[in-house]
Structures are given as structure tokens and as C-alpha cells.
Amino acid sequence: MNGQCVCGETTFEVELRNHDVHACHCSICRRQTSGVIMTIDVEQGSLKFLKQAHLSIYNSSAWGERGFCNACGTTLFWRTKDQSYCNINAFSLNEQPNDLNFDMEIYIDSKPEFYAFQNSTKKLTEADVVALFNGVSAE
């Protein structure tokens, strides 16, 4: 599949892991997008940039980084620093699969009270997410 930023200065190809969409409610995603970001997991190592002169990487935590176009500001991906996990902005794809499934919300304990999705989704707290990426069971 192919995707790009708003201005077209950063383009990529990618293989989706599945068609499950996740929403992140963490404070960084909300500040970055003025809402939630909706993402799709990609196959490890499959994100390849075709045009990347305006690609920038932001070191957003001890274990994660965010990619964006520095010409138009479009958020493109989040990945672990070791690149063992990566997801992309679901709306950066040029064509979205017809069978996308909104299945999970993360950092649900950071979600403001003034909005809620109607869909029934799996919900993970910040502790759940941190444990997941650290290989620890969150209980």
C-alpha cells in the first residue's frame, strides 16, 4: 500500500499487519493532532519512504519516536526505537482497505471526559501499554 503526507513531499509504501485501527488518547497524540490519532499496525520493516527529504523524526519517549513531514506537519508514524513495532496514521494511506475495524483505544485513562467513541473496543491504560512494550504482564 502507498501513502503520503498532506503536501505530498513525504511518500511511502507499507505492508499492513492487519486492518485493525487503534485510537491513542495519550497527551502527546492529543496535542499533536488536536484529538486522537487513529493508526494501523504495519509489518516489521515494511515501512519504506519513497520521498523523504522532508521526513523528520521526533524522539518522543525513552522507547518511541514519531515521524512527520516537516513541510506540512502531517503525522505519519509511531515506532519503537528498535523498530520492532511500527504503526502508521490510518488516514495517510492513499486508499484505505474497505474492511477496516476500529478495535482498540490506548491510554484510555488519559482520555478527556468530553468525548467518547460509540464503538465497542478493547481499552488499554497507560500502564497496560507500557507493560506491553516492556514485555511485562500488566495486572
Describe this structure in words.
The protein is mainly β. The chain has a single domain, classed as Beta Complex (Metal Binding Protein, Guanine Nucleotide Exchange Factor, Chain A), CATH 2.170.150. It has helices at residues 27-33, 126-134; strands at 2-4, 11-13, 16-24, 37-42, 48-51, 55-59, 64-69, 75-80, 86-89, 101-106, 122-124. The strands form two sheets. Strands 6-7-8-9-4-3-10-11 form an eight-stranded mixed β-sheet. It is globular. Keywords: Lyase, Metal-binding, Zinc. InterPro entries: CENP-V/GFA, Mss4-like_sf. Pfam families: GFA. This is CENP-V/GFA domain-containing protein.
Q: What's the SSE blueprint?
A:
Layout: E1 2-4, E2 11-13, E3 16-24, H1 27-33, E4 37-42, E5 48-51, E6 55-59, E7 64-69, E8 75-80, E9 86-89, E10 101-106, E11 122-124, H2 126-134
Give a quick set of tags describing it:
mainly beta; Metal Binding Protein, Guanine Nucleotide Exchange Factor, Chain A; 8-stranded mixed beta sheet; 3-stranded antiparallel beta sheet; 12% helix
Q: Which term fits the overall shape?
A: globular
Task: Please report the distance between the alpha carbons of the first and last residues.
Answer: 37 Å
- CATH topology category name: Metal Binding Protein, Guanine Nucleotide Exchange Factor, Chain A
Uncertain runs with pLDDT below 50, 5 residues or more?
Answer: none
Average predicted confidence as pLDDT: 94
Biggest sheet overview: 8 strands, mixed
Outline of the structure:
Pfam families: GFA. This protein is mostly beta strands and 139 residues long.
